[in-house]
Amino acid sequence: MIDFRPVTIDSLKHIRYYFQFQNYRTCDFTVGGMFMWASYFKYEYAVFQETLFIKGVSEIDSTVTVFSVPVGKLQFHESFTVLKEYCVLKDIKLVLSAVPENIKNLIVTAYPFNVYELTNWADYLYESQSLATLSGKSYNKKRNHVNKFKQQYPDFVYGRMNESNLPAIQSFFHLFNSQNEKNNPIFQNEAEMTEYVLNNYKQFDFTGSFIKNDDSVIGFIIGEILSDTLYIHISKADKTYCGVYETLNKEFIADIIDRHPEIKYVNLEEDVGDEGLRKSKLSYHPIFILNKYNLSYAG
């Protein structure tokens, strides 16, 4: 029987290896997408026959055990058998969580599953060059915000995150968090995990940048590269500087593409039901909304 163990920072290198065996482009199959939600969804992992299995609790009901689609050397029909045997032994229902649409269609064709769409957990996927250049009529407002920011703050500094500037970024985040605190478990989890990532930045295979004005950090952004996609896990900025978010995004994505020309897509991840986030992500004109589903085995 597969043996699940807690997801820890020390297990990330082991886990990261297996994400190369999928091309779903959803953030659930990245180190950041999993680790930043590890405590919230009580994630555990197991490796069996060179395949990664992840167990947690449902986005809909925290009393329900769920599993990610396994990734690795096993074919799905083989890993499905492993999960089914585990669920029988544990006397629990087999539920697959946050299943990407393309693999969902294959699964429900082959097996009897009840399907539930996770409406607040879809990812927003964009063409990387579009966000790096903001060219074209649809991005007029975004370009105007960037131009206004650069006109108002001509001496702003864009830089890449490293050990020497982390303390200033952490100080900015502490101030930002105190001014933008939300009484919501999801956002409280995000704040705690952002703090954790900043405190342990060297141990993550992430890439980050920041913007300064008058020698003070006014925004930072952290992402992860996997195959042809940049996943932006964290983005925080002082909105009193008009256009700071648009400028930070544009500079960061252009910088990443310059260093990694293989990047074709940018994933800005979920809106978790927040209308402000949803409006913001839609304003960047995604080329795909990556829907996700929970599949409950009915066999």
In short:
This protein is α+β, with helices and mostly antiparallel strands and 299 residues long.
Q: What features would you describe in this structure?
A:
- The protein is α+β, with helices and mostly antiparallel strands.
- The chain folds into two domains: 121 residues, Aminopeptidase (3-Layer(aba) Sandwich); 147 residues, Gcn5-related N-acetyltransferase (GNAT) (Aminopeptidase, 3-Layer(aba) Sandwich), CATH 3.40.630.30.
- It is built from ten helices and 15 strands.
- The protein has a seven-stranded mixed β-sheet with strand order 9-10-11-12-13-8-14. Strands 1, 2, 3, 4 and 5 form a five-stranded antiparallel β-sheet that branches. Strands 6-15-7 form a three-stranded antiparallel β-sheet.
- Helix 7 runs antiparallel to helix 8.
- The protein starts with a strand and ends with a strand.
- The model has no long low-confidence stretch (mean pLDDT 96).
Record the SSE blueprint.
Elements: E1 5-6, H1 12-18, H2 31-35, E2 44-48, E3 51-57, E4 65-67, E5 71-72, H3 76-90, E6 95-100, H4 101-110, E7 113-117, E8 123-127, H5 128-133, H6 140-152, E9 157-160, H7 166-179, H8 185-199, E10 207-213, E11 216-226, E12 229-237, H9 244-259, E13 265-267, H10 275-282, E14 288-290, E15 292-297
Parallel strand pairs: 12-13
Antiparallel strand pairs: 1-2, 2-3, 3-4, 3-5, 6-15, 7-15, 8-13, 8-14, 9-10, 10-11, 11-12
